[in-house]
Design goal:
This protein is mostly beta strands and 155 residues long. 4% of the residues lie in helices and 48% in strands. It is built from 1 helix and 11 strands, in the order E-E-H-E-E-E-E-E-E-E-E-E. The strands form 2 sheets. It has a 6-stranded mixed beta sheet, with no helix packed on it. A 5-stranded antiparallel beta sheet has the order 3-4-2-7-8. Strand 3 and strand 4 form a beta hairpin. The protein is globular. It starts with a strand and ends with a strand. The model has no long low-confidence stretch (mean pLDDT 94).
Length: 155
């Protein structure tokens, strides 16, 4: 199985960063519910909002796979799955109040997205320091996957 991996830091201002179609550059959602906050993610057309626990710069690893990778969910604290339409083929990771941090050309189409949150128990009481990491996996899919929490972390 082929995969490409990118590691970078994201300033998660307002506890958010976006995985989106950079050719469309969709508007970020503003209609947040308590359920969205608990899920630590939200989807709208052409964008998936990932919600790190810390409102700080956090490490992110994004992986592009040809097919669904084997993942052991017990290795992670919080897991969210959904799908993302990328009709332009311009995959972009964008900070909430900052700019673009990653742009990759992919085959246009629908992708499954798996957001894996790790190290959440290392975050200090102030929410400023920690060894939390956010791993985002994408692979082509023919299915539309509604946003689902596969494993929930509670503080």
């Amino acid at each position: 199985m082929m995969s490409r991996q990118f590691a970078f830091d994201v300033f998660a201002d307002y506890h958010q960063f976006y995985v989106q179609d950079g050719g469309i550059f969709p508007e970020a959602p503003t209609d947040w519910t308590d359920e969205d906050v608990q899920r630590r993610a939200k989807t709208i057309d052409h964008v998936v909002v990932i919600c790190p626990v810390r409102n700080m710069t956090v490490p992110v690893v994004l992986e592009l796979h040809d097919s669904e990778p084997a993942i052991n969910l017990s290795d992670y604290d919080h897991v969210v799955q959904c799908s993302l339409e990328l009709p332009s083929g311009e995959l972009q990771v964008h900070e909430c109040t900052g700019g673009e941090v990653l742009r990759q050309t992919v085959a246009p189409g629908r992708y499954a997205v798996l957001a894996l949150f790790l190290g959440l128990d290392t975050i200090d009481a102030m929410g400023l320091e920690g060894n939390d990491t956010y791993r985002i996996l994408l692979w082509p899919t023919s299915s539309t996957l509604p946003l689902a929490v596969l494993k929930a972390w509670t503080e």
